[in-house]
Amino acid sequence: MAADEVDDADQIPFVARVADYAGTVLRPYGLRADRDGVPPQRVAEFADVKLLNHLAPKEFGGAALSRAADRRVHEILSGACLNTWLVWAQHAPIVGRLAKEYARGGDLSQRAHDALSGRLLVGAAISDVRRFPDHFVEATRVERGWRLNGTVSWFSGWGLNSAVFVAAVEPSSRTVITSLIPIDQHITAGVLGLSALGGSRTQRIHLSDAPVADADVISVQPLDEWRREDVDTVSDARPQHFGLAARVIDELRAEREPIAREIAERWAPRIAQIRADAYGLSDEAIAAGAGPHRTQERLAVKAASGEALSTLTRALLIARSGHGIGFDDTAQLHARSALFVLVQGQNADVRRAQLTHFLDTPHDPDTPTDPKDS
């Protein structure tokens, strides 16, 4: 099973090093990271642990990890500190994308080679393509390149990353241009007040005539093709769901209240089943190739995962009573983190599946709970 392969990845030396780093450095700092922001030294630490290019080809110093091992790394980091994980998780898949282009023989820029070599932290600015034509970054063709204009709704790691991986749309041809460009005077940030993952340095950024040389373009593809690929990205419950769930279950198990420990033991098998279903369905979709594959089932699993996280984090907060809502307690941090997971990677289909999940309840609010009231 796919989930068993993820568990087996703990035996891989690279994964074990990540687990040690997450447990000794990230986890103890989690509350402070949420309050003060992910500190700059994390970037150097990522480089030392080889987390900046773990998906790069071996010739660039990559770790040659399987999909299962990569999932395990995401689980470990998200369970230790979700703010730090988000900054890193915006970067890591970009390196994987660049590695695929390199394998295809693509002519990559020096900046892309630096990312593959683990010499810089990249931020992602791609999700606004989902909102075209209502909101998007617009690409305009100019001599030997492009100009980008528009606002990126969410950009994590501002102040830590030195380049941005941006997807823009040329509206007349409905073409998506993806590029890797430097953060310079053409890109500015505005404060984005968040009640969850406020330490992730997530900002709203604006691109004003940002130049893109042809050499910095990673791909040019039809919008419909981009959207088909994006469906696979957003349809599944992902490793961060299960990293956070495992952390909360561990903390419930450590509570003095016996019923809190019982909740942990009752919910652990449920989380394990959701995790197995999510990874299994995702792998099926990858094996099936282009086109939708059991999408409704995958969305249902994602909705169930979000609901389980909400339940578990509420249980932990209740178990700690008034202490749980203090800024020095992880219960409130995990509860707010669960809210973030609910809306992360959300398109219209995901949102509909999540809301439909709330309709599937055994209690109709219009039905009296007491027979004598009927």
From TrEMBL:
Residues 10-96 form the Acyl-CoA dehydrogenase/oxidase N-terminal domain. GO terms for molecular function: flavin adenine dinucleotide binding; oxidoreductase activity, acting on the CH-CH group of donors. It comes from the Bacteria. It holds the Pfam family Acyl-CoA_dh_N. This is Putative acyl-CoA dehydrogenase family protein.
